[in-house]
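User: Sequence in, structure out. Go.
Assistant: Echoing your sequence, followed by the structure tokens.
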Amino acid sequence: MNPRRELKPGARVLVTGASGFLGRHLVDLLKVHQFKVVEAGRSSGFRLLEDELALDGVDHIFHLAAETGVSDAWQDAASFHLINTHGTVRVLEQCRRAGCSLTYLGAYIYGVPDRLPIAESDPVRANNPYAFSKWLGEESCRWYAQTFGMAITAIRLFNVYGRGQSNRFLIPRIIEQVLDPSVESISLQDLEPRRDYVHVCDAVAAVLASLPDAGFHVFNVGSGRSWSVGEVTERIQHIAGTNKPVVDRGQKRPNEIPDTVADIRRIQVWCGWHPTVSLDQGIEELVMDLRK
């Protein structure tokens, strides 16, 4: 039988990165399940590299605090390493001393895959500073779990989207162009790359469903299929009822990954989680929000 953990209502949990995109959604879900949530985030002045976590009475930590964004990471790889790797080690050390279990929110770290869909056992080829820093954070979790007997789950998130996401990310950026009447044509860097998009509500549900009782566990979290940038744009225009010209600037990113599809069978077997929000449903939600 799988050593899964069920937190009881009223359990005290702590979320780092609580004020971020994923953090806000996870905090809301935890409160719906009647957990006592301690929030540690930038909006409350929490500094990952300096402050101590308030772990008195805490049963479990969800570690989401991180620097994100591939393009930004190329500009300042050292900062990404400090926050995403060393910051994770600081959380792990405090977690070890307090006797808490932990969930680590990781990222896509496979680089250009050998095959699709991509399983957790496939090679890790972190090909940008952001993915490299998140992989080192995950490896720190593995080391702490194996060395100190800690219970840790690491989630390898594919492309998450949903309400509250910054327009630095693809889907909200396209929707803004589609709905802005002053924008005559939609200008995109490259229409070809394909990604596995998973709705934020499905992502945080997977985080909550995959708590460990013992050992170290790694799970992919995605939708199990991919869409190209061009296809995503078509779906958004169809749902929004627009037909603007689309300009492909043909600007290939360095180290571009052509396609990603998550093999999600491991987490499905482990805890029964599966994605429930289709891409069309998620886009429709965002289009309605922006129109309001």
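User: And one key feature?
Assistant: The domain at 12-165+198-223+263-276 is CATH 3.40.50.720 (Rossmann fold).
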